[in-house]
Fold this sequence. Notes:
The complex is a heterodimer of chains A (154) and B (146).
Chain A: E1 3-8, H1 19-35, H2 37-51, H3 53-62, H4 64-77, E2 82-86, E3 90-95, H5 99-106, H6 117-127, E4 132-139, E5 146-152
Antiparallel strand pairs in A: 2-3, 3-5, 4-5
Chain B: H1 7-38, H2 40-49, H3 51-64, E1 68-74, E2 79-86, H4 88-95, H5 107-117, E3 122-127, E4 136-142
Amino acid sequence: MTKKTISRKAGDNKYLHKDFHGALSVGIDYVHRNYGEDAVREYLRQFAAAFYAPLTDALRQRGLVALKEHFDKVYADEDGRTRMMLSDDELRIEVEACPAVMHMRENGYTVAKLFHETTRTVNEAICAATPYAAELLDYDEATGRNVQRFYRRT
Amino acid sequence: MISCTEFIPAYSELFKFLEFRGGREAVEDFWNYLSDEFLGNLRTEVEQHGLRGCWLYWNHTLNEEAADFTMELDEAAGRFKIVMHHCPSMGRLLENKHIEPYHDYCRHCDVLYRRVLKPLGYEFKIDLSDCRNARCAVIINSYTDR
């Protein structure tokens, strides 16, 4: 019969619980099944408009470099391999394999059919009401490999 | 990509979205679904290891979530306990001053874990009285391991 105790402080560990990708996927799938495709996009737009509001402000004020800094951190934290090309009017991000999709595939989580909307719709929502737009140029469902493009609206 | 470090606000906003669409019942329905679909690893650990499975499950998740906690396992007493000194989820929601946490955010833990543990013969108690300060406590009592 075991008796044991542990205590941990927040600073003892790095905050990186990749299983959360699986929980988000379950949520996306649930909304899709019960409320439809448009509801998934509506939810993601609402989330992005609320949560990424400071990033959208930074995009307005500082331009695409603000997005590059954001995605540099996101992919670095999750060990995602990317190639980013930034100019005054365009940011192109080539993701070799999406860390979220790869974690789910490797750990037996179901990847929601609309999981790619967590990239496409969220990127579009971040750019809403700014001089910039976003598009998802390519997406591989098996690995999440993708090409994202942000550009100045003409 | 939504980073796993950004999941908690995405989760909180999903609860708001569901409540707007279908009321609190819609949120509860989702929590039940999520428990059934996503907590298979907790279920498996407890089925295989009894109360020690709780220790194995939360030792993994709480460390990856960089929680500030104390966790106790007493198999002879049939008790497992977590004292959350600072919940990483609610803590992050409170840090993000530009978003308001879902009003009943913390109760998802009660619904999700109780739904897994009760059918396996465990009593699940959670004290959420101070959860708006990112503090809570969980006690799981075993009737089968004693």
